[in-house]
Amino acid sequence: MPTFEQYFLMNTDDVIHYVQFKIDSFKHAQTITCTEIGDGNLNYVYRVINNQTNDSVIVKQAGTTARISDEFVLSTSRNKIETEALMLQHKLAPGLVPEIYLLDETMSCCVMEDLSKLTIMRTALTNFETFPHFAEHITDFLVNTLLRTSDVVLNHKDKKELVRTFINPELCEISEDLVFTEPFHNNFNRNEITPGNEQFVQTLLYSNEELHVEVAKLKFHFMNNTQSLVHGDLHTGSIFIDQNDTKVIDPEFAFFGPMGYDIGNIMANLMFAWARGRAYEQKEFTEWVENTLFDIMDLFETKFRTAWDEHATEVVAKNADFKEHYIQSILKDTAGMAGLELARRVVGLAKVKDITTIEPIESRLKAERLCLRVATELILNPFQTGGQYITALQNAQQEENK
């Protein structure tokens, strides 16, 4: 039996031995079941159950390459970044992320709370399920984790130490390539365009010089603005949910960057759900998505303003005009980042099931064009309110129906 003193990539049998060796509640278990449950692009995830007590945990380990492609050779230290991000987020937004039981830097893995009683939000949305508390929960998470890791609130030296802790160059490079670069140029072989939309993509994305300028601005903003600790990959596949609870998971892309990146990712992935709902004529579902888009922007701004007044420690940040400037810049960033996410999930390497499983193919092509129309509008003319996002979706739908 291994002693786990040197890194190796575990299989299910190894994971069983691991939890027996490392977790007190499993040390004397007679029967343990381990199942690989991860379907993400990067890591290996296992659910381990003590069949005598029904105690269960999740074990997550980082491999040396991304599962999405062997082209991405990665340091296994990203597991440490993810786990420490979850620990900090748990402190700032208790109840909205899983609890961490163990961080093992040697094995590049962590053991955490099992959330299997909940559903991955993207899966639920593809089945047109709705969640009445999501906007409330996700804006609590966003406000508390973003504002309270910024220079508005933190001692500046402490914040700079955190920036150093969460330096994440390899995963940032993936985002810089897959989000900010490749979707807008036709000389990258990782792009995947659905047959039938080639000319549309060529015109709207590849040949659009005005768009390229704005995307370049957003890319350099992403690379150079250490505004706050962002999740870095906050989509509906990184959220567990039911009618009462919301839990944010998988912050392996966490780093200090612009707040709007996280908010924009949430908005974009809800818009994928909206496009799917329209494709299948799910009126009640699309109305819920519209209301949620509106509520997220409204609640975020309202809660952010309140939290600023409660938590701001920086003297110059207490200036009312500066506060307004800061908030408006976040809202502008949010729109641009949402546009990037919409574009890259349609034409780039990492797609979303909301769109790829739409049938027949003609309906998928229409949904993709809708998303790309909204993407370019968001990047070129950044919106400030939830209502403007809804109007853009509806206008794109009308354009597609002509």
From TrEMBL:
Protein's UniProt keywords contain Ribosomal protein: no
Give the E.C. number(s).
2.7.1.100
* Gene Ontology molecular functions: S-methyl-5-thioribose kinase activity
The domain of life for this entry's organism is Bacteria
Question: Which keywords are on file for this protein?
Answer: ATP-binding, Kinase, Nucleotide-binding, Transferase
A Pfam family for this UniProt protein? APH
- InterPro entries associated with the record: Aminoglycoside_PTrfase, Kinase-like_dom_sf, Methylthioribose_kinase
Q: How does it assemble?
A: Homodimer.
**Record-stated family:** Belongs to the methylthioribose kinase family.
- What is the name listed in the Swiss-Prot or TrEMBL entry for this protein? S-methyl-5-thioribose kinase
- Provide the species name: Paenisporosarcina macmurdoensis
